Amino acid sequence: AILVFARARQISGGIPSVKTVALAARQRLRPILMTTVAAMMGAVPIALGIGGSMAQNHKSLGMAVIGGLIISQTLTLLLTPVLYHLFEELQEKLERRNKQKTPPT
Fold first, then answer.
1. Structure pTM?
2. Element (H or E) spanning 11, and its range?
3. Please, what is the angle between helix 2-12 and helix 18-48, to 10°?
4. Where are the alpha helices (DSSP H) in 13-102?
5. What whole-number distance in Å separates Cα of residue 23 and Cα of residue 77?
6. Digits of tens for pLDDT over the chain (105 positions)?
7. What's the gap between Cα 77 and its chain centre?
């Protein structure tokens, strides 16, 4: 997620808008999804109970890993850009307010 925001700042020249955050998120979507899918594929044998005699005992662990990856990536991809944009707007408002309060020297 941090790379999405670094990309947004790079695209916009320092001041990200909704469009630049969305563009950066789209550009970073593929690598993020590829990493998540690779981790999920690694957990599939555990979730299916494939392996030695103790493999059946680890099915719930594999399902938890896969479910956790799905939920965390969904929240990361949807919620993080929105929160980033909101915090950027809040920072801009606070900076404007501080400039108005600061007396000219």
1. 0.67
2. helix 2-12
3. 160
4. 18-48, 59-101
5. 13
6. 566 666 676 766 666 677 777 787 788 888 889 999 999 999 999 999 888 778 888 899 999 999 999 999 988 888 888 888 888 889 889 988 888 877 766
7. 5
